């Protein structure tokens, strides 16, 4: 299974379901965390 960024549509759907008050900030934070996870996974693949 390949890692990939969480689709924006999924993040927005979550915001709608859970009444996230600041969608733009939430998306920014999720993207930052997603980028960190993907970068770490790429590092681990290079170490092997």
Entry summary:
The protein is mainly alpha-helical and 48 residues long.
Give an overview in words.
By secondary structure, the protein is mainly alpha-helical. Helix 1 (8-17) packs across helix 2 (23-47). It is elongated. The protein has one domain. The chain has helices at 8-17, 23-47. Helix content is 73%, strand content 0%.
Outline type? elongated
Q: What is the rounded distance between the termini?
A: 17 Å
Overall radius of gyration: 13 Å
The helix/strand class is mainly alpha
Proportion of residues in extended strands: under 5%
* Sheet with the most strands, sense and barrel status: none
Any key phrases for this structure?
48 residues, mainly alpha, 73% helix, elongated
SSE topology:
Layout: H1 8-17, H2 23-47
Helix pairs in contact: 1-2
């Amino acid at each position: 299974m390949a890692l990939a960024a969480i689709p924006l549509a999924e993040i927005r759907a979550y915001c709608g379901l859970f009444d996230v008050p600041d969608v733009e900030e939430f998306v920014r934070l999720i993207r930052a965390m997603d980028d960190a996870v993907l970068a770490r996974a790429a590092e681990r693949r290079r170490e092997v």
